[in-house]
Amino acid sequence: MNQPQAEPAKLLIGGQWLASRTDHWQDIVNPATQQVLGRVPFATADEVDAAVAAAQAAFPAWRNTPVGARMRIMLKLQALIREHSQRIAKVLCAEQGKTLADAEGDIFRGLEVVEHACSVGTLQMGEHLENVAGGVDTYTLRQPLGVCVGITPFNFPAMIPLWMFPMAIVCGNTFVLKPSEQDPLSTLLLVELALEAGVPAGVLNVVHGGKEVVDGLCSHPDVKAVSFVGSTAVGTHVYDLAGRHGKRVQAMMGAKNHAVVLPDANREQSLNALVGAGFGAAGQRCMATSVAVMVGAAREWVPQLKALAERLKVNAGHEPGTDVGPLISAKARERVLGLIDSGVSEGATLLLDGRQVQVPGYEQGNFVGPTLFSDVTADMRIYREEIFGPVLLVMCVDTLDEAIALVNRNPFGNGTGLFTQSGAAARKFQNEIDIGQVGINIPIPVPVPYFSFTGSRGSKLGDLGPYGKQVMQFYTQTKTVTARWFDDASVNDGVNTTIHLR
Ligand code: NAD
Which of 310, 350, 407, 408 has the most CB atoms around its CB within 10 Å? Predict the structure, then answer.
């Protein structure tokens, strides 16, 4: 464990941790205290080229490394992540602001992907059919692509990098990771563990930076595929730029997730779920519940929802008992406060106002308290835009059909939930709702890695999602071989000018 944990963050190129030669740096700041934890370089174009070149050079040997050897590195990596998860969680909590328990969850959800990567031997198998014609067999190979790139957001600095590089490299690709410039330290600890687990020099590389670095990677001639997770504005740009340069691209983007509550639902469980999913991680989850749609008599539960939200404890993430930590930056806080102001001025009813929250001992923190709006309409900015803060909107409708129509009219398609005791209502909902991830009495339905993350519509570009079966397809290309062998030199079928196999 000899990679610098704090300042300045280093680049990893060809197995070497290097100090960047850039003159563009950004502070990594604890969002509860404003303490500077380190500095992140915005890599130069030459450094980006060097990282891609190192990945390209490592590819021929790595793609031919036996699958068992690749798998064993993942087995070692999952053991190392378990061993070091408390230490990484503390760093994650300090640089990102989430509670320690949530930081551990961030790491654990990524660890599950590493565990799944240990099954690559079966996951990467192709298909084989003999006698597709007389003595002719056809089989498929799932081969790695080459240099793949991952660009990750600030909100899950452990889970999302682990969605990407373990699956990409276990399939035989090499990788260049560009972590969030806001909180790269915990990501770097995971990369360091990957090296310790035996990932060879050049197979995994790291560059830091923002738009210029991302654009350089997306347009680099030697990059074959780009995985992006982040905001809709940046994801759309990345998809377009990398797509124009002939890369495979997957972009997971912003969201506006609705939870629909029917009056027959388990009242306590449903309200607890709304509060946890609405305000947990200070609302900075792409699968956070941002709109509670109360159907019929469930609208009478809103005062209880408010009472539960009021009880949440806002504090620094490392303090015991914290429910809601700070937002990632002062800029993010200003943005969320501006959106709350817009809700008030556009006529929504502010049931609970988190704008003035004070946290003793952390007066400089980027805190916003739980905020609840009712009387929200679809034309308001607070409904149209992703807030990415601890703000829950309440909308009321009379029927399940109206609720489904409301959710389906929203352009985002990341996640949704239904709270009910009725199997028939749940079945209708899962069938008619046009959202990629559905929870039935589950507030944040992020699939485990044996499935895939399947956000849809405005929340995603590209047809294959991260991790699971879909990402195996994303990180490999199928080669189909049709073969015939002759065991007798005298075989002579004569010339055949048709396309027919016989
Ligand atoms: P962001 O889009 O600001 O940043 C994401 C990445 O893009 C970072 O690595 C950043 O350095 C880079 N970047 C920033 N500006 C860029 C530009 N102009 N050109 C090229 N690259 C640029 O996102 P964020 O604020 O870090 O993360 C929050 C967003 O991510 C939210 O919208 C959230 O919904 C989304 N998100 C989505 C998912 C999902 O699976 N759908 C998961 C997590 C987060």
Answer: 407
Of 378, 358, 352, 359, nearest to 279 by C-alpha is: 352
Give the pair of three-digit tokens for residue 333. 């806080």
> Is the distance from CB of 346 to CB of 393 less than 8 angstroms?
no
Which sequence positions are flagged as catalytic? 286
Cα–Cα distance, 335 to 356 (Å, whole number): 15
Among protein residues, the one with the nearest Cα to ligand 1's atom 31 is 231
Phi, psi of 334 (to 5 degrees): -60, -40
Q: What span, in angstroms and rounded, lies between the C-alpha atoms of 17 and 4? A: 9
**pLDDT tens string 158-198:** 999 999 999 999 999 999 999 999 999 999 999 999 999 99
Concatenated DSSP letters of 375-409: S--TTSHHHHS---SSEEEEEEESSHHHHHHHHHH
Nearest CA to ligand 1 atom 30: 230
Angle at 242 between CA 16 and CA 388, to 5 degrees: 85
From the CA of 256, how far away is ligand 1's center (Å)? 15
Q: How confident is residue 3, by pLDDT bands cut at 50, 70 and 90?
A: very low
Atom of ligand 1 nearest to the CA of 156: 43
Distance CA 445, CA 252 (A): 15
Indicate the DSSP class of residue 55. H
Q: Ligand 1, residues 24, 220, 229: which to mutate, most atoms within 8 A of Cβ? A: 229
DSSP state of 198: T
Count Cβ atoms below 10 Å from residue 424 Cβ, excluding itself.
8
